[in-house]
Amino acid sequence: MPAPRTRRVALILLPVLGLALGACGYGSQAVENEGKSKIAAGAKKIDGLDSVRIGYFPNLTHATALVGNREGLFQKELGGTEAKYSQFNAGPSEIEALNAGSIDIGWIGPSPAINGYTKSAGKNLRVIGGSASGGVKLVVDPEKIKSLDDVKGKKIATPQLGNTQDVAFLNWIAERGWDVDAQSGKGDVSVVRTDNKITPDAYKSGSIDGAWVPEPTASKLVAEGGEVLLDEADLWPDKKFVITNIIVKQSFLDEHPKAVEAVLRGAVKTNAWIEKSPDKAKAAANAQLEADSGKPLPAEVLDPAWKSITTTDDPLAATLEAQADHAVEAGLLEKPDLRGIYDLRPLNKVLRAEGRPPVDDAGLGVK
Questions:
Q1: Chain centre to alpha carbon of residue 82
Q2: Which of 258, 274, 315, 328 is deepest in the core (most CB within 10 A)?
Q3: Which H or E run includes 211?
Q4: pLDDT of 125 over the 60 cut
Q5: Distances (CA, A) of 25 to 153, 262, 282, 322
Q6: CA-to-CA distance for 143 and 226, rounded, in angstroms?
Q7: What is the pTM of this model?
Q8: 294 CB-contact burial (10 Å; exposed 0-12 / middle 13-18 / buried 19+)
Q9: Which phi and psi (to 5°) does residue 154 adopt?
């Protein structure tokens, strides 16, 4: 497969994607959860703040937030300022909460980050760090699909029109020379937009022949007898592409830079701990999933899903630009301008303090 192209694009979303590009989960309600973190006696507040409100999805692609919450690593860096957590099940609700000031910092996928940035004309949020790469696969019914060529003529699910995985699948279809109408999903392949919660049941019933989906949905399909036909990581340079970013409300970044740096230190230290102790981190993530959603993942789903996701401090900015480019080529985006979506200065300050090199914004950072 040719590697995805990267080129500069300018950004204005088509109205039809107002919600679709924002969605990367299930439902739309936020659930508050204070986590297990405790403020140490005598700890001082940062920037005079009583709390920092952090949002994330109860999903393995948000492993940094799950583990950092569970292990109290964000709270440790925030000192006497309380880390308060809210869980979201879809991008639009998290962006809405950020815009309304209900949360200050959030973990979120690339499509809703792009959508939130452009809908506010670049005024309401900034991407301040990376969190996860990979964890997206094309899983198929091995009785119906035995090769990549066999995907033609089949029914393949994606989570939602215009979401990150939908755009990736449409781009892959186009690179194979097949034709599909992006809006209807009809053509040489039938693209069936299906909520990730429903996809395993749709697969079991035979109403779809496979799905291009993130973890843990991909591993749930494998547990139902599906086979991984393609790992999206294989389509990207160095097998890396952004699946989760850290975003911040612009006004919060301006007014409370030390608090933002504290959360980023927590994220960097959490990712380092995940890399050093993957089994303990996996258990911590699953325990927090159970606390947040009421149900842990079974080992047959958790283990392969965890292996396919890589936590990262680098936001992999060039790959976000490429994802926007793919949406433009699919006819789902008009020419966007992503310049200014990143402010990596706080992250790079944290990395320098850790003796590590800075990360790059691919020319899309604030000036």
A1: 25
A2: 315
A3: strand 210-214
A4: yes
A5: 27, 27, 21, 21
A6: 9
A7: 0.86
A8: exposed
A9: -100, 170
Residue 224's pLDDT is what? 95
Last residue within a domain, chosen from 238, 271, 306? 238
**pLDDT of res. 186:** 97
Dist. CA 284–CA 180, nearest whole Å: 42
Domain that holds residue 232: 136-238
Q: Specify the DSSP class assigned to residue 150.
A: G
Are residue 117 and residue 250 in the same domain, yes or no?
yes
The token pair at 332 is: 């789902």
Reported as a single tens digit per residue, the pLDDT across 188-235 is 999 999 999 899 999 999 999 999 999 999 999 999 999 999 999 999
**Structure tokens given for 278:** 């993957």
Q: Identify the residue whose tokens are 């970044």.
A: 253
Are 123 and 103 in contact by the 8 Å Cβ rule? The answer is no
Which tokens sit at 208?
Answer: 């779809």
Name the one residue in this structure whose structure tokens are 């569970």: 70
Which amino acid, residue 314?
A: D
Both 22 and 122 in one domain: the answer is yes
Structure tokens that stand for 159 in this block: 């989570």
Q: Residue 190: beta bridge partners?
A: 155
Apex 246 CA angle, 312 and 239, nearest 5: 35
